[in-house]
Amino acid sequence: MLKGKSAVITGSTSGIGLEYAKVLASEGVNVVINGFGDAGAIEKERAAIEAKGVKALYSPADMTKPDEIAGMIKLAETELGGCDILINNAGIQYVSPVEDFPDEKWNAIIAINLSSAFHTVKHAVPLMRKAGWGRIINTASAHAKVASPDKVAYVAAKHGIAGLTKTIALETAQDNITVNAICPGYVWTPLVEKQIPDTAKARGISEEEVKRDVILAAQPTKQFVTVEQVAALALFLCRDEAASITGALLSVDGGWTA
User: Fold this and answer.
1) If exposure means fewest CB atoms within 10 Å of the residue's CB, which of 28, 46, 103, 110 is most exposed?
2) Distance between the two ends of the chain, CA-based, in angstroms?
3) pTM score over 0.85
4) Torsion 22-25-29-30 (CA) sign
């Protein structure tokens, strides 16, 4: 059903974003991946995706630069014939009490976690309308629904993603385009895994205690969400069975927001 369609996925050189790309490619979707990282590692992942029998392109577009974002969508139009599926996944984090929160960190988080989604949507929607079909999926967070202390920029950005999702869903409701946000809790990614030993050492507790009592304190299941679970929901949202789901904030958070 999705074979031959094209997708742009921001922040997709690792973690959740890379899994989105892999799952869509397995369904025959051509993809543009994007993000920073080691050039060799990125090329290895791109080639592995292309080995699934699809076209896989890499865009190094900086999500703080609107002109580069526009160029990334143009790349999909030129090389893949359009942008049928857009997944906004790029994001960064910084933790600090508000009175000490650096201005440059606030600006960077708002730019990458929120404003970049506005710019991708702005350029992708006309292509979707022209094609008569589209799917926009924004990776939000449990923090699109609830807050945590010391994460003012991240929480503000994710709440903003919730509002952006609903607004664009209404604007495209009669265009065979759906717009939804996936709101994961804590997901097991290489980034999270790397933090655990240092946190255990700093707090003088075991790594298992860090997982259960620190990272998963708000997650009732005490289980990490997996990238496969998040990507499976994204795939469903792309399918015809999900055509009536739009403007939704879909939790995958082990009960956190319950």
Assistant:
1) 103
2) 34
3) yes
4) positive
What is the rounded distance in angstroms from the CA atom of residue 82 to the CA atom of residue 138? 19
Q: How many domains does the chain have?
A: 2
Report if residue 257 sits inside a domain.
Answer: no
Residue 1 maps to a domain: no
> Is 58 assigned a catalytic role?
no
User: Does 256 fall in a domain?
Assistant: no
Q: Assess contact for 28 and 50: CB atoms under 8 A.
A: no
The tens digit of pLDDT for each residue in 4-34 reads 999 999 999 999 999 999 999 999 999 999 9
Phi, psi of 184 (to 5 degrees): -75, 155
Task: Give me the catalytic one of 20, 58, 94, 154.
Answer: 154
Separation between Cα atoms, residue 88 and residue 24, nearest integer Å: 14
Say if residue 62 is in the same domain as residue 137.
yes
pLDDT tens, position by position, 107-142 = 999 999 999 999 999 999 999 999 999 999 999 999
| Cα separation values, 217 from 164, 198, 209, Å | 29, 18, 10
Q: Distance between CA atoms of 184 and 230, rounded to whole angstroms? A: 7
Structural domain includes residue 198: yes
**85 DSSP β-pair partners:** 7, 135
